[in-house]
Design brief:
Strand content: 15-25%
Structural class: alpha/beta
Strand order of the largest sheet: 1-2-4-6-8-10-12
Largest sheet: 7 strands, mixed
Helix content: 10-25%
Shape: globular
Distance between the termini: 76 Å
Radius of gyration: 20 Å
Number of helices: 2
Length: about 220
């Protein structure tokens, strides 16, 4: 009986070790294609394959990555789809850098994600519809990028969302009614879609632009 318990324990440890190594491999492979002028990723080294010992990485009690904090780090390069394999990730904080390319649609598989902060980068392309699968998401901030295309109606599925900031991009079309209903029936307290190319005019409440009070879906409307 004791040997069976010991075997189960060793098996669990082995599985956790494999998970750690996989997550370390993913993050290290990302590091190799990023430009890091401030050397903030110096600790991301496979000499220490457990990424829980690396700076800017937070893990849970099982040594599984739950948080990446790389805001305002001076990094540039793409956001890789393989980040979706960090399946327990809750916070992806990549704001105020020079990340470019598109937002990977694979990020929509991060079912535990609470906060996705990609604002103030150089991201282009459309907002993936798959982000509407992130049922735990409370904060989605992608403002001050070069995003184009429509606002996905699927964002209206995010009933836990509290802050949605899409302003200062080049988004087109109309604001989906499904998203507006998050203000009326959901938990959304901050919705900012100002300074885009949306049909109609969006008026921020004040000079900070943190919320929207009036949306006119009329291309001829004036401020």
């Amino acid at each position: 009986m004791v040997s069976r318990v010991l075997l189960c324990f060793l098996f669990a440890v082995a599985i956790a070790s494999v998970d750690c190594n996989l997550e370390g491999d993913i993050l290290y492979s990302w590091k190799t294609i990023l430009v890091d002028p401030n050397n903030v990723l110096a600790s991301w080294n496979l000499t220490f394959p457990n990424p829980c010992s690396w700076f800017h990485v937070t893990c849970n009690n099982e040594n599984i990555v739950t948080r990446l904090d790389l805001g305002n780090a001076g990094l540039s390069g793409p956001i890789i789809p393989a980040l979706a394999n960090l399946t327990n990730l809750q916070y992806l904080e990549l704001y105020q850098n020079k990340f470019n390319g598109s937002i990977p649609s694979e990020l929509g598989h991060l079912k535990d994600l609470v906060s996705l902060d990609l604002y103030w980068n150089q991201l282009s392309g459309s907002i993936p519809e798959t982000l509407g699968h992130l049922n735990s998401l409370r904060f989605l901030r992608v403002f001050r990028n070069n995003l184009t295309g429509p606002i996905p109606w699927s964002l209206g599925n995010l009933t836990s969302l509290q802050i949605l900031k899409l302003n200062k991009n080049r988004l087109t079309g109309v604001l989906p009614v499904e998203v507006i209903e998050l203000v009326r029936f959901g938990n959304l307290g901050v919705l900012d879609v100002s300074n885009n190319l949306l049909a109609g005019t969006v008026h921020p409440t004040n000079s900070t632009g943190f919320a929207v009070t009036k949306i006119i879906q009329d291309p001829k409307a004036r401020n």
